[in-house]
Amino acid sequence: MLFFEGTNPAEEKQPGLELATFRIRVGHVIFVNVGDTRIDGKITGVYTSPPSPARNTLEIAAQYLSTGNAAAAVEGRVEIRGGNGDVVATMPIDRKVALPGATTLFVGSLGSALPKGDYSALIILNYGDKQRDVVGEVTFRLEQDLAPGPSAATPGS
Questions:
Q1: What is d(CA 64, CA 135) in angstroms, rounded to the nearest whole number?
Q2: Rounded to whole angstroms, what are the CA distances from 23 to 7, 93, 135?
Q3: Domain spanning 41-155 has what CATH number?
Q4: What pLDDT does residue 99 have?
Q5: Model-level pTM greater than 0.85?
Q6: CA nearest to 111, candidates 151, 155, 154, 53
Q7: Contacts of 80 by beta carbon, 8 Å cutoff, 6+ apart
């Protein structure tokens, strides 16, 4: 969080010609949990956005509902699987804070080469519980080959 504070250059009386000056302050958000906390959640929807001529990436989005009573840092990955079930690509999902009772959208983007065909995307999210992941899955068809391009994806094994 950044705070911008404007000043009047005429009042600063600094040498040289200044049209505007700014002071930058950094702010922090701190979550404090009072009482017993329970962190939990579920995926309530999974969506695909196929590549288009203007955007040569495949996007997979998961809608996550935080059902606990405390803020949680949620992150994960998307595994793209071919028709035989083998992982052909993975996409990281960046960490976001999910607030209690709120719905948060997590998006993974793939820009690496992937031939046209039928696939499934397994979305795996984790909110800090090492024993339990939250998962969702969607099947989709690529109507055209996905050409390689800039992406945060990693080819599968």
A1: 10
A2: 8, 34, 45
A3: 2.60.40.10
A4: 92
A5: no
A6: 151
A7: 60, 87, 88, 89, 90, 91, 110, 114, 119, 120, 121, 156
**152 against 59, higher pLDDT:** 59
Pull the structure tokens for residue 43. Answer: 């995926």
Residues 28-81: tens digit of each pLDDT:
777 777 788 899 999 999 999 888 777 788 899 999 999 999 999 999 999 999
DSSP 96-135: EEE-TT-EEEEEEEE-S-B-SEEEEEEEEEESS-TT--EE
Q: What confidence score (pLDDT) does residue 65 get?
A: 96
Which helix (H) or strand (E) element contains residue 95? Answer: strand 87-98
pLDDT tens figures, 78-97: 999 998 999 999 999 999 99
Tokens at residue 44, please? 């309530």
**Which amino acid makes up residue 30?**
I
Angle at the Cα of 4 from the Cα atoms of 21 and 23, rounded to 5 degrees: 45
Which residues does residue 118 pair with via DSSP β-bridges, in sequence order?
A: 141
Residue found by looking up tokens 């339990």 in the block: 132
Cα–Cα distance for residue pair 52/9, rounded to 1 Å: 49
